[in-house]
Amino acid sequence: MIVGDGTTTFLDWELALWGDPVYDLAVHIHKMGYLPEETDALITRWQRAMPSDHTTGRRRDLAAYLTHERIKSAIVDSVRYRQLFARNGPYPYPEHQLVESLAAKLNAARPYWHIPEPNRRPHRRNGPAPPMNVGRGYRKE
Predict the structure, then answer these.
(1) Percent of the chain at pLDDT above 70?
(2) Angle 108-101-31 (CA atoms, 0-180°, nearest 5)?
(3) Is 114 left (phi over 0), alpha (psi -120 to 50) or beta?
(4) Do residues 21 and 50 touch, judged by C-beta distance below 8 A?
(5) Can you say whether residue 15 is alpha, beta or left, with left for phi > 0 and alpha for psi between -120 and 50 degrees?
(6) Structural contact between residues 60 and 52, judged by C-beta atoms closer than 8 angstroms
(7) How do residues 32-72 score in pLDDT, each as one tens digit?
(8) Is residue 43 within 8 Å of 25, Cβ to Cβ?
């Protein structure tokens, strides 16, 4: 924590892994899950605050680092969640939230693995299809 000039700045050294400020920015963006407009605002403010020699090649590097983080997150969390489910918890969140989270992470990494989108069945207009045995063995009296 740095306090001075009426402001307080917090440094999270846990995420300062490679010594590259662009990588630090990518990790922060990935972990925070900002909306696109929030990400754009953050990058703009970051770019203004950083010395120009720290931002050369930023666009290319940021894209590469974000790709790295998405793939790493999908792989690491696949292993982590598999271990949680194998030992039946304890779960930090309800199971359905873990499954939804992992599905989102795998889908975020999908384009970088060159895996096409799965074919999705169209939704029925009148709700879900009835079970196959509806009406069979049922006699109306």
Answers:
(1) 79
(2) 65
(3) left
(4) yes
(5) alpha
(6) no
(7) 989 999 999 999 999 999 998 888 889 999 999 999 999 99
(8) yes
**What are the structure tokens assigned to 72, written together?**
């790493």
Question: Which residues lie below 8 Å from residue 83, measured CB to CB, with a gap of 6+?
Answer: none
Whether residue 76 contacts residue 39, with contact meaning beta carbons closer than 8 Å, is answered with no
Are 62 and 22 a contacting pair, CB within 8 Å? yes
SS3 4: strand
d(Cα 2, Cα 76) in Å, to the nearest integer?
Answer: 33
Cα 24 to Cα 58: distance, rounded to the nearest angstrom: 12
The residues with which 39 forms a beta bridge, in sequence order, are none
pTM metric for this prediction: 0.67
pLDDT tens figures, 96-111: 999 999 999 999 999 9
Q: Which of 44, 46, 45, 12 is nearest to 31 (CA)?
A: 12
Q: What is the DSSP letter of 130?
A: P
Reference 26, options 36, 39, 41; nearest CA is 39
